[in-house]
Specification:
The structure holds two protein chains of two kinds.
Chain A (H helix, E strand, L loop, with lengths): L9 H12 L15 E5 L7 E7 L2 E12 L10 E7 L15 H16 L9 E3 L3 E13 L4 H15 L1 E2 L1 E3 L4 E3 L6 E2 L7 E8 L2 E4 L3 H6 L2 E7 L5 E7 L6 H25 L2
Parallel strand pairs in A: 4-6
Antiparallel strand pairs in A: 1-2, 2-3, 3-6, 5-6, 7-10, 8-9, 11-12, 11-13, 13-14
Chain B lengths: L17 E5 L7 E7 L2 E12 L12 E8 L14 H14 L11 E11 L4 H15 L9 E8 L2 E4 L3 H4 L7 E8 L5 E4 L7 H33 L1
Helix pairs in contact in B: 1-2, 2-4
Chain lengths: 270, 234
């Protein structure tokens, strides 16, 4: 990712590109194949919903918390969403302590966009009293081990954590959340979105890069959409350009992969 | 002493169920998870590596630098991500707790970075963090004289109990709760001690003995987890 040290040796990089020309990858995957996605629930009992997502050696944990807040003036009958990502120095020697740097900020924003724009969250049902009180949804993403493609792991984790989350009870009299009472039900959600990133390495297009492959990525396009092929968010990252024709290939690739992963998440969380 | 019942039915000197595992962060030089009841800490060690910023380098020996933090969703009321005054203090306390066992004189100008995160909190997070960090340091192969073990002893009203939960920390009857987190080496050297509440000197002496006993159990758990990781490799 931007502003990150790239440590993959040139010679390894050349080899990766040679392989990709033949449609092959070091770990035997095809260019449009994800590593196996493992979703584990209830990482934290104190969260309203939490999951651990593993893709190969890449691992993130995502937690959903609910809070009470005043609605924004332009959406008096809608709840709020706040998505943050922290790329912990625990997860890679490339990350440092200190205020969030660009990759962490971008991750939070890209994931926020897919959650918001896909219509996944029914914000109107997160309103308690119009103009006065609404639910605040916090989605917090932490990297545990970075072996490439934290961005997509974060997106899958955010969606999964929301899906397993339970609404706590609002105690109107005391005007606070009552954690001693059983949760009232799931977070109001619609059909799940998935955000995946296609990377351009040399002339090849791949998804779910490992750390080594991600180091060689010249540019990437993150596409958020649903299993029906509706696209609701995009972001092109890094400076290299993409031919219009190749961009169309990226859309096709994304459509296919998004569908696969959406089905996989649905199946796993049933 | 009158019979005192703990909310979860444990004996006074009984710790919560413990789990420990090393090697949970593949990127790190050493890593560990320590779980005590509903408190879960993960720790990763990177180093010894060159100390940055450079002006903090010590040409005589390597240094340890700890970062403790809680995940925003590890507690009921979400914590804002980022460092707080509390986490800054616990980071330093953890550093002091671990430093006495490290032998870093052979690694001048370097730093051993220890990152501790609490994924789920039910009191005793600094102790769980220190236990995890100590295992992660050993797992990373950092030269150490010993492991460091940590436990919190509490006084609920007049009764001493070991390994408080959040519910017990919020105990409000009689003299209320006193929380005394202690870290020590298995040979009985105390490297960290804090106290919140009120207690007499005689009873405080008993606290130390109680902690020592509990720490022996923690030590066994840590050793087992480390041994297991080596067996798995073979």
């Amino acid at each position: 990712m931007t502003n990150q040290v790239r440590t993959t040796p040139n010679i390894t990089g050349e080899r990766i590109k040679e392989y990709l020309k033949k449609g092959k990858r070091f770990d035997g995957r095809t260019p449009e194949q994800f590593r196996e996605i493992i979703i584990e629930r209830d990482v934290s009992k104190k969260a309203e919903g939490s999951v651990r997502v593993k893709m190969g050696k890449t691992e993130v944990v995502v937690g959903v918390k609910l809070g009470l807040a005043e609605p924004y003036p332009d959406s008096p009958n809608k709840g709020n969403l706040m998505t943050t990502a922290e790329l912990l120095p625990l997860s890679s020697e490339r990350f440092e302590n200190g205020p969030p740097k660009f990759p962490a900020i971008e991750t939070g924003r890209v994931i926020d966009r897919i959650l918001r724009e896909s219509g996944f969250i029914d914000f109107e049902k997160l309103c308690i009293e119009e103009g006065k009180k609404v639910w605040n949804l916090f989605v917090d993403i932490y990297s545990i081990n970075d072996d490439g493609n934290l961005l997509d792991a974060a997106g899958i984790g955010a969606v999964a954590a929301l899906r397993v989350a339970k609404m706590p009870k609002y105690d109107a009299e005391k005007d606070k959340i009552d954690y001693d009472t059983e949760p009232t039900g799931p977070v109001p959600l619609k059909e799940i979105p998935v955000s995946i990133t296609v990377h351009k390495v040399g002339d090849s297009l791949i998804v779910d890069p490992t750390r080594e492959e991600e180091d060689l990525s010249e540019t990437r396009v993150t596409i958020g959409g649903n299993a029906e092929g509706r696209i609701s968010s995009m972001q092109k990252g890094e400076a290299a350009s993409i031919d219009a024709e190749q961009m169309k290939q990226i859309f096709d690739m994304a459509e296919k992969v998004i569908k696969e992963i959406a089905n996989k998440i649905e199946k796993d969380l049933k | 002493m009158t019979e005192f019942k703990r909310p979860d039915g444990r004996a006074l000197d009984e710790m919560r169920p413990v789990e420990a595992k090393v090697g949970i962060v593949p990127n790190a030089d050493g890593s560990a998870m320590y779980k005590s009841g509903d408190t879960v800490a993960i720790a990763a060690v990177y180093g010894p590596r060159k100390m940055h910023p450079q002006h903090q380098q010590d040409p005589e020996k390597g240094q340890i630098r700890c970062t403790y933090n809680m995940m925003s969703f590890s507690v009921s009321d979400r914590i804002r991500p980022g460092i707080s005054r509390r986490s800054t203090e616990i980071s330093k306390i953890t550093e002091w707790a671990l430093e006495p066992v490290l032998m870093l004189d052979k690694y001048p100008n370097t730093v051993v970075d220890v990152f501790i995160h609490i994924t789920q909190a039910d009191a005793g997070t600094r102790c769980a963090g220190i236990n995890a960090a100590s295992m992660a340091l050993a797992h990373a192969g950092i030269p150490m004289k010993n492991l460091v073990t940590s436990i919190s002893v509490g006084k609920l009203d007049k009764t001493l109990v070991v390994d408080l939960t959040k519910e017990e920390e919020d105990f409000e009857e009689g003299e209320g709760p006193t929380d005394i987190p202690i870290s020590m080496t298995p040979d009985g050297k105390i490297t960290h001690l804090q106290l919140d509440g009120k207690i007499g000197v005689q009873q405080l002496k008993d606290v130390v003995d109680m902690a020592k006993k509990a720490c022996e159990k923690v030590y066994d758990v840590q050793k087992d987890a480390l041994k297991k990781s080596i067996e798995e490799k073979q």
